[in-house]
Each structure stands twice: as structure tokens, then as C-alpha cells.
Amino acid sequence: MHAEQVAMMQAVGMRSRTGGMWWGTTIEAPDPRSLANFYAGLLGWDIGHEEPGTTVLAASPQGPFFVFQQADGYRAPVWPPVTGEQRPMMHFDFQVGDLESAVAEAVALGAVVAGHQPQENVRVLFDPAGHPFCLCHDEG
Predict the structure, then answer these.
(1) Model pTM greater than 0.70?
(2) 86 shares a domain with 62
């Protein structure tokens, strides 16, 4: 896509999307229901829909949504990245008011604190399926 096309798309938005349409992120997992329950506890969101191999977590009836999808042969990403291993393709960042208590709450739900912590105001953790996510103390 040329720079002019990208600029035009950004200026007008995707024409086929209108207000009120849902959006979300799909996360592969070996056990979608279990991982959705972990994030439901972490975020206080509700399970919005379930079917075999898929569980949808909703911030509200209008979204956004996290869709947890069954992944056969799932390999947890390695963080920090290691050559030849499955790299993290994305991760979630969640702002928190108290970093220490937020980490304790996440660990109580099943998260694991990563050994490598690159920033003082951020804690990298792994969800029960091994996806990294960050809890960020940012008062700004």
C-alpha cells in the first residue's frame, strides 16, 4: 500500500465499519475456557459467549472483546525472546494503581512473574498459558 492510500484510509476510517460494531483481539490457547476465566478474574470482565474451542470475554456488551481460541500444538512464547524459540507476537499492558498489590492479585489468579524485569514501574508476568503481559504503574 502506498503512503497516500494509507493516509486516506486513516483520514476516513474503514468505510465498512460503522458505529456500534464490535471489535476485539483473538488469543490462541491450549485451554480457552481456563484462560478466559483467568483474564475475567484479572480484569473483572464477564464471559460473553462460549462454544466448543472458543470463549469470549467482554468488557461490556459492546466490547471490546478478548476471544480465546483453541490452538492445537500450542507453544507458549518465550520472553525475553530467544533465537529459535516461539517469540511473543503481542502482549497486553494494563495500568494499575498499586504495582505490588496488582502483581499479588495476578499471581493469586495463576500468573507467574517473569525473571527478567526491564523497567522499575512495570512488571512482566505470564498468564497460565504462558503469554506475557505487563502491569504498569503509571500515574499519568
Answers:
(1) yes
(2) no
